[in-house]
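ingest -> validate -> predict -> emit
validate: passed (alphabet ok, no gaps, 478 aa)
predict: started
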Amino acid sequence: MAFKDGFLWGGATAANQYEGGWNEGGKGESVADHLSSGNVSHPRLITKTIEDDLYYPNHIASDFFHHYKEDIALFAEMGFKVFRMSIAWTRIFPTGEELEPNEEGLKFYDDVFDELKKYGIEPLVTISHYEMPFALTEKYNGWASRKLVDLYLKYATTLFERYKGKVKYWLTFNEINCGCLSLGNYMSLGILNGQTRDFTNQEDDVQLRYQGLHHQFIASALAVEACHNIDPDAKVGCMIAMMPSYAYTCNPIDVLGNQKNMRTLNYYCGDVQVRGKYPSFSKRLWNELGVELEMQPGDEEILMNGKVDFFSFSYYQTSCFTEDDSVDSTSANLIANAKRNPYLKESAWGWQIDPNGLRVTLNELYDRYEIPLMVVENGLGAYDTVESGQIHDPYRIEYLREHIKAMSEAIDDGVDLMGYTPWGCIDIVSASTGEMAKRYGMIYVDSNDNGEGSFARMKKDSFYWYKKVIESNGKDID
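emit:
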């Protein structure tokens, strides 16, 4: 196996899906706090107030807020070199517009970072991970307003100054390219159009969405520059939700359509953040969508000066693209109506399992950008059963094993890969459905879809397997 010395093995979570303590320690309400529970059949609801007859799973999540010492000790037992986490914006600036940050919130993350340091675990911190202040949605319609650039930069700068020397690796926005999808209106951009209530079927204003995405690009670039000035030893990356697809047939129409799909979903945002400018295909894309971006003087210079140091991404599955509507559809991360690949197996949620697609993705990304890469989300959502105090999850081990093999092959292909942080290393609330039943973790959390349970932590078989993988630096994966 090809993993270099110092490879960053670890796991990944997000504050809004893991942390809990939604109204403790001076924390304000985030957009995630206004999402009700749901499941595969029933969508989550976006509510403008917290309604008494609905359950909001992000409010308690996995309760890391009260279990962080126990959880970090378990991560250390697995051998983590890095822990990807996010900071809740509303724990630092409850409405996003306070003159001074919330000291109690800053202190909480000081304690978390100190606990990680005790075990020699490097934090990889996402600054904004689907949990911006709901107050900014109410007042400005989220990132539709350029006002958020300054508010985000103040928040990010506060973090860089406070945690200088404690945090070496930062990510500016989680899956920023979610803004290329209608689902990203509320979740990623905090944009709430009209009477939207159904999380999966939001009223969409493409102009507002792409304008909001431009504002995020500017904010990210300014944050990169600020971090480099405040802490020259720190590194800042982008984070893209890779949604790779294959042409379903060799019909040139499918090939061209798939190329456009790949450019729009996967490369549009990466090109801006890595290359510092909009890609060559962007003008035609805007014209076809009817988008007229409003840019201020100096924006192009800001983007060029704020290029990221490394490229991180999530990878769960691939799909197919075809113009033939009769081809069967299946589920996929963030994508509706993904076309089924007849050569692949699927998870219980219909996500197609494609380890070789990860190797393809790594090679394509490194050829395109030639900067270090990091896989910061990858994993299998599955139903787990507790049997006599044990959780046997060979399906998860198989999924992770095959993807680790694919990463090793990509490294042999010439890819500079920094690290690997499987998603939901501990069970957390699903972003898309709000379920706990869709479990990714190597650590089980005793809680159900209604937030009922002891919240006790239990090691799954995959816990011991991943510990062995890390100890051997990827050599022992059987």
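Residues 364 and 415 are 9 Å apart (CA to CA).
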